[in-house]
Amino acid sequence: MVTLNVMLAAMLMVAGMQYTMKSPKRPLRQPYPATGFWVTESKPGKTGTIVRYYANSNRLVSTVAEPANLDITKLSVRRYLNKKLAGELSRDTTKASIQKLYETN
Fold first, then answer.
1. Secondary structure of residue 4 in the 3-state scheme
2. Residues facing residue 50 across a β-bridge
3. Confidence of residue 91 (pLDDT cuts 50, 70, 90)
4. In this predicted structure, what is the pLDDT of residue 20?
5. Which of 19, 37, 45, 93 gets the most CB atoms within 10 Å of its CB?
6. Which pLDDT score, from 0 to 100, does residue 58 have?
7. Do the bridges between strand 37-41 and strand 49-54 make them parallel or antiparallel, or are there none, so unpaired?
8. How many angstroms separate the CA atoms of 30 and 73, rounded?
9. Residue 93 above 80 pLDDT?
């Protein structure tokens, strides 16, 4: 009977610990772009953000100066930058954004 109570208490304690571990204070939602990536640059004391869009091959596709400071910790800003990245990659005429897995001679 005592071991049953101890086992039940241990199971409840483990279940409580797992519940607190699974529910962080802030949700960790990170939208990743399908292809390519972007890098932002903001200078302290100045307004505006420079955004550089890159293809998967680490080739610079374009550089855009945004008039406002972008806070990339916000989910809406990351989604905005991902949408702009998709647009920049679609306008890329060199098609170097397509990653080559192998080459044939």
1. helix
2. 41, 65
3. confident
4. 46
5. 37
6. 84
7. antiparallel
8. 9
9. no
